[in-house]
Design brief:
By secondary structure, the protein is mainly alpha-helical. The chain is 71% helix and 0% strand. The longest helix has 14 residues.
Length: 161
């Protein structure tokens, strides 16, 4: 019987949790090719790249993951977040709009989409995306108020007299 993927990833996950990102990456490199290609392994690789601030590498790996593993919503969230870090809001938005329909039930989907739309000057769309996000999870409201990407949305609201 083959061990579960989680048990095979434990050493790398342990290194990651300790902040030993290069050791975590090396532990993943030592796995069998089929395990290295598993979506959970790739997701951990994205986490490592993110932790290291390697946004271009994360965006490139994530784009491939989104194409090959479109049933893993996590790849779309992580990849669009890396693209935002690269100030590539246009491609982040396009990636999200092309994501599987089931992603539209996630508050993160609408929140990240709103950030992209606001940065692209699509204020009406950003407001609609935020409304969808808040309908799904009200805890995003405070987070949104502190988000620099959403400043243009708040500035577009009528001023109180």
């Amino acid at each position: 019987m083959k061990p579960a993927i989680e048990s095979l990833l434990e050493p790398a996950q342990g290194y990651f949790d300790l902040g030993l990102f290069h050791d975590a990456w090396e532990a993943l490199d030592e796995l069998e090719p089929t395990v290295r290609a598993h979506p959970k392994t790739l997701s951990l690789r994205l986490d490592i790249l993110y932790a290291l601030g390697r946004w271009e590498d994360a965006a490139a790996l994530g784009a491939g993951c989104c194409r090959n593993w479109s049933n893993y919503e996590d790849f779309f969230v992580k990849t669009s977040s890396a693209l935002i870090r690269l100030k590539d809001h246009k491609n982040a938005r396009e990636l999200l709009l092309g994501a599987p329909e089931r992603m539209r039930s996630l508050p993160d989907y609408h929140y990240i989409l709103a950030r992209c739309e606001a940065r692209l000057g699509l204020i009406r769309e950003a407001k609609a995306s935020l409304a969808e996000c808040f309908d799904r999870d009200k805890s995003y409201r405070q987070r949104a108020l502190d988000e620099p990407d959403l400043e243009s949305v708040w500035e577009s609201l009528p001023k109180e007299k």
